[in-house]
Amino acid sequence: MDAKAPWQLTGRGFILMYRLQNSFIRESCFLPEEWMKKKWSGMGYVMFVDYQKSPVGPYKELLVIPGKSRFDGSRRGTISKIYVDSADSMNNGRRNWGIPKELAEFSWTQEGRQHEIRIGGDNAWMEIVLEPGSFPFPVDTRLLPIRLHQELDNKIFRVSPHGKGTGHFTLIKGLDVNPEFFPDLDLVEPLVAIYVDPFRLTFPVPEIEPILGNQ
Fold it and tell me: Which of 23, 166, 169, 194 has its CA 20 to 30 A from that of 143?
């Protein structure tokens, strides 16, 4: 299925916010080799997302944005590792925005307030248990804008997704991750974890240009 930008999405998800050290970002966050020497700073994010409506149907997603660095004179984040459980999402994400999506099997179950997410099938390489609180508050990307720089297939993609929803502060009740597949979150503490349900998100048409040498 070919689903061109822009995309309108709705669903629910967990956002874990970090201030990651440069050493951790370089060693653990799957950066391209040419970005290893860049200085990274600012807020980093890990997101577990259950898209219930999208142009390619429902799908689940795990991603990391380790922080921001300077690209062509502006500071932007990048999605350095991302998994989805939909081939249509993977192919369109790569083609539309240069997001390096990979396929993985997801299990997301809920009992009461507690959510258990497993990724990787029978030999799961990520397991996390999260428990949102009951107090709701508004969430809006205008407060913490996300401006992405992605490079894929000899192209540069710049895009700023935006969205809003209802948030709940969240406790992490259990976590296990294999660092061969995703940054070792056992080694870092999030500043805060939030559950957003429901949310609405727009991924607009990106700016695209060819790569003309080292960035």
Answer: 23
Q: CA-CA distance, 206 to 5, in Å (whole number)?
A: 8
Mean confidence (pLDDT) of the chain: 96
- Would residue 1 count as lying in a domain? no
Record the tokens describing residue 62, joined without a space: 């795990």
Backbone angles phi, psi at 97, to 5 degrees: -130, 5
Structure tokens at 163: 């969205």
- Closest by alpha carbon to 211, among 132, 136, 152? 152
Residue type, 172: I
Domain count, the chain: 1
Question: Are the beta carbons of 22 and 39 closer than 8 angstroms?
Answer: yes
Give alpha helix (H) positions in 16-105: 22-28, 87-97
State the Cα–Cα distance between residues 27 and 9, nearest whole angstrom. 32
Domain region containing 193: 7-210
92 — phi, psi (to 5°)? -75, -35
- What is the pTM for the complete model shown? 0.97
Segment 134-191, tens digit of pLDDT: 999 999 999 989 999 999 999 999 999 999 999 999 999 999 999 999 999 999 999 9
Give the pLDDT confidence of 49-74 residue by residue, as tens digits: 999 999 999 999 999 999 999 998 89
Instruction: Answer yes or no: are the C-beta atoms of 192 and 139 closer than 8 Å.
Output: no
